[in-house]
Write a structure and sequence with these properties.
Layout: E1 10-15, H1 20-32, E2 36-39, H2 50-63, E3 68-74, H3 78-84, E4 92-94, H4 98-106, E5 112-116, H5 122-133, H6 141-155
């Protein structure tokens, strides 16, 4: 594994029916790269509610934030990101380009990456995933901003 996450990091992944094929592709690429992957489903292309999988991934990451990061895939990535962000401790970010994939880690320390299978091609999703996994949070003023988000969440 060449990412900035420690060797013990587990990537928790989930999708709805629209993201199923891309999820399977990303799992294969992650495993080839040496990551441990925990698949929260769905396990086929039968229509399902995306929120169930967003919560499952979010709760797994929130329960072990030092060792787990999440990836969510649906048709657009929008529903997954919105639902995952309802889980306390989650900073899920939808990405549609490489710059966003990098900045969501560097500036916002996102712990869940969200992508849309109907928006981007599988190999581009893999590029986004690698960029996200290999980008360090910059800390400093950005750590203060992330802490402000988390403090707000605790207070409300």
């Amino acid at each position: 594994m060449n990412g900035v996450f420690s060797m013990g990091t587990t990537i928790v992944i989930g999708s709805d029916h629209a993201g199923f094929r891309m999820k399977e592709f990303i799992i294969k690429k992650l495993e080839e790269a040496g990551y441990t992957v925990e698949d929260k489903g769905t396990h086929n292309e039968t229509s399902v509610d995306a929120g169930v999988y967003a919560v499952a991934v979010g709760e797994a990451v929130a329960a072990d934030p030092q060792q787990k990061r999440g990836i969510l895939i649906c048709g657009t990535g929008i529903g997954m990101s919105m639902m995952a962000n309802k889980v306390k401790g989650i900073r899920a970010s939808l990405v549609t380009d490489l710059f966003s994939a990098k900045m969501t880690r560097a500036h916002n320390d996102a712990n869940v990456l969200c992508m849309g299978a109907r928006i981007i091609a599988p190999y581009m999703a893999w590029e986004f995933t690698q960029t996200w996994l290999n980008t360090k949070h910059l800390g400093g003023k950005y750590a203060k901003r992330v802490q402000a988000m988390m403090d707000y969440e605790k207070q409300h």
